[in-house]
Amino acid sequence: MKALTWHGKRDVRVDEVPSKSGDARVVLVTGASSGIGRATAHALARRGERLVLVSRSADILEQVRQECMSHGAADVLVRPTDVGDGAAMDQVFDRAVERFGRVDGVVHAAAVLAYGRFEDVPSAVFDKTVRTNVTGTANVARSALRVFKQQGGGRLVVVGSVLGKMTSAFMSPYATSKWAVHGLVRTLQIEARKTPGISVSLVSPGGVNTPIYDQAGSYTGHVGQPPPPVEAPEKIADGIVRALDRPRREISMGLANPVMVLGFRSLPAVFDVLVTPLMRWAGQSRRRVAPNPGNVMEPKGDGAAVHGQWPRRLFN
Question: What is this structure's pTM?
Answer without folding.
Answer: 0.91
